[in-house]
Amino acid sequence: MAAMTTETEPTATEPAAKDAQPTTAAVAQGGGGAPNSWGLGDGQAIPWDYAPAPESRDIVTIRPRYGLFIGGREVMPAGGGVFVTVNPATEEPLAEVALATKPDVERAIRAARRATGKSWGRLPGRERAKYLFRIARILQERSREFAVLESMDSGKPIKESRDVDVPLAAAHFWYYAGWADKLDYAFPGRTAEPLGVAAQVIPWNFPLLMLAWKIAPALAAGNTVVLKPASTTPLSALLFADVCRQADLPGGVVNIVTGPGEIGMTLVTHPGVDKVAFTGSTAVGKLIAKGIAGQGKALTLELGGKAANIVFEDAPLDQAVEGIINGIYFNQGEVCCAGSRLLVQESIAEPLIGKLKDRLATIRVGDPLDKNTDVGAINSKAQLDKISELVEAGVAEGADLYQPACELPERGFFFRPTLFTNVAQSHRIAREEIFGPVLSTLTFRTPDEAVEKANNTPYCLSAGIWTDKGSRILMMAQRMRAGVVWANTFNRFDPASPFGGYKESGYGREGGLHGLLAYVRLEDR
Ligand code: NDP
Question: Which 3 state secondary structure label does DSSP give 282?
Answer without folding.
Answer: helix
